[in-house]
């Protein structure tokens, strides 16, 4: 069954009256355009002043003035409440106030310069973001980018990669670039890492590790841009996933070439080649799993499914698999890659990759049914 939008949760569709002007850009968008996207994403009705007279007088109405943009969290709170009277929504950073009441109260003749008696209501300062000046718009852009992370981010992503990716996202959005530009640049960085690791020598190995870590951080840019501008899509998720895995596989190929060129012998080269072929096959299986069981193309669904399987089964082996899966996350693997490259241990990178491959192969061979069942439960919850 289709999950209702937040603006439909109380039986009345929330109306939003947008300001007519385009103010200073926030995350590369005019405030009017961004507010329109937020309202449409959550199922609200965008209306003009002239169209309000035909609406139900009890229909909830949010009026957005010039120089302000909102976060969807504000809609998620207001859409589940029926306004009792008229409120002026303010924050510690924005005292101008947003009208929150009903269509009937908004259309009522004003008394004493005010439509009806207003009650001031303070809300979270992250929900109403001012953009009346370039400085305010810049601060509001950073606030939105700061909230653009994912709950599934690992420790490395939260504390290291996001600190690198958000300034890049801010720059790209300021230049009016789109998420696919970031995806393309991420592919170039990843392929650069693959070329460097195929060469011999310490410094090319270090550069390869640094580029792979940069690609891991850069991997978050397209998602941050998409979430901040509300342009996420299943197609975008598939592009991101395809680039991630293409660069990962290319780096393994480069690692095998470099391993062979540095004279690790026939056995070592055979091991590297087997790792590349095995990883390619495993990635194909994971692609099929995501295509069949995930709502979009994100490989995060694999990690979530394994975590749910470990939670619902309660068995020790699956719990251990869940812990080992943390090491398969790209952010964690990239950090290990860089550390091993900086230490000059190419063989350690191969060892990390082999361990990751073995854990994934074991997990999806032994616990396939449990993981598929967990994926189905998650899909039903998000439907």
Return the domain count.
2
Q: Distance between termini?
A: 7 Å
Query: What string gives the helices and strands in order?
Result: EHEEEHEEHEEHHHHHHHHHHH
Query: What can be said about the biggest beta sheet?
Result: 6 strands, mixed
Q: How many distinct helices?
A: 14
Low-confidence stretches: none
The CATH C-level class name of the largest domain: Mainly Alpha
Describe this structure in words.
With 383 residues, the chain is of the alpha/beta class. It has 2 domains: 6-134, Spore Coat Polysaccharide Biosynthesis Protein SpsA, Chain A; 151-382, CDP-alcohol phosphotransferase transmembrane (TM) domain (Four Helix Bundle (Hemerythrin (Met), subunit A), Up-down Bundle). The protein contains 14 helices and 8 strands. The strands form 2 sheets. A 6-stranded mixed beta sheet has the order 2-1-3-6-5-7. It has a two-stranded antiparallel sheet with strand order 4-8.
Keywords:
14 helices, about 10% strand, alpha/beta, two-stranded antiparallel ribbon, Spore Coat Polysaccharide Biosynthesis Protein SpsA, Chain A, elongated, Four Helix Bundle (Hemerythrin (Met), subunit A), six-stranded mixed β-sheet, 2 domains, about 375 residues, single chain
Task: Quickly describe the structure.
The protein is of the alpha/beta class and 383 residues long.
């Amino acid at each position: 069954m289709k999950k209702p939008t937040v603006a439909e949760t109380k039986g009345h569709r929330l109306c939003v009256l947008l300001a007519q002007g385009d103010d200073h850009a926030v995350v590369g968008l005019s405030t009017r355009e961004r507010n329109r996207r937020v309202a449409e994403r959550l199922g609200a009705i965008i209306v003009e002043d002239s169209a309000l007279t035909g609406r139900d007088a009890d229909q909830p109405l949010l009026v957005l003035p010039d120089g302000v943009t909102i976060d969807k969290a504000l809609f998620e709170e207001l859409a589940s409440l029926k306004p009792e009277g008229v409120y002026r929504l303010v924050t510690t950073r924005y005292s101008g106030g947003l009208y929150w009441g009903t269509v009937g109260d908004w259309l009522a003749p004003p008394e004493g310069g005010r439509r009806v008696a207003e009650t001031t209501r303070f809300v979270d300062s992250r929900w109403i973001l001012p953009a009346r000046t370039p400085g305010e718009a810049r601060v509001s852009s950073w606030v939105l980018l700061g909230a653009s992370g994912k709950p599934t981010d690992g420790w490395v992503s939260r504390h290291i990669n996001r600190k690198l990716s958000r300034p890049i996202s801010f720059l790209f959005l300021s230049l009016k670039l789109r998420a696919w530009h970031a995806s393309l640049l991420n592919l170039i960085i990843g392929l650069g890492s693959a070329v460097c690791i195929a060469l011999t020598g310490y410094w090319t190995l270090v550069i390869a590790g640094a580029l792979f870590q940069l690609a891991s951080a850069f991997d978050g840019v397209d998602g941050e841009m998409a979430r901040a501008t509300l342009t996420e899509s299943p197609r975008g998720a598939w592009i991101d996933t395809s680039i991630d895995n293409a660069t990962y596989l290319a780096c393994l190929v480069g690692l095998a070439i470099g391993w062979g060129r540095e004279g690790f012998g026939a056995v070592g080269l055979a091991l590297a080649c087997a790792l590349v072929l095995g990883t390619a096959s495993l990635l194909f299986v994971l692609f099929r799993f995501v295509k069949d069981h995930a709502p979009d193309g994100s490989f995060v669904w694999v990690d979530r499914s394994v975590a749910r399987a470990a939670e619902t089964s309660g068995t020790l082996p699956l719990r251990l698999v869940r812990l080992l899966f943390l090491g398969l996350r790209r952010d964690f693997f990239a950090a290990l890659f860089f550390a091993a490259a900086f230490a000059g241990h190419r063989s350690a990178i191969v060892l990390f990759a082999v361990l990751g491959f073995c854990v994934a192969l074991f997990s999806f061979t032994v616990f396939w049914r449990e993981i598929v069942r967990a994926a189905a439960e998650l899909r039903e919850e998000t439907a």
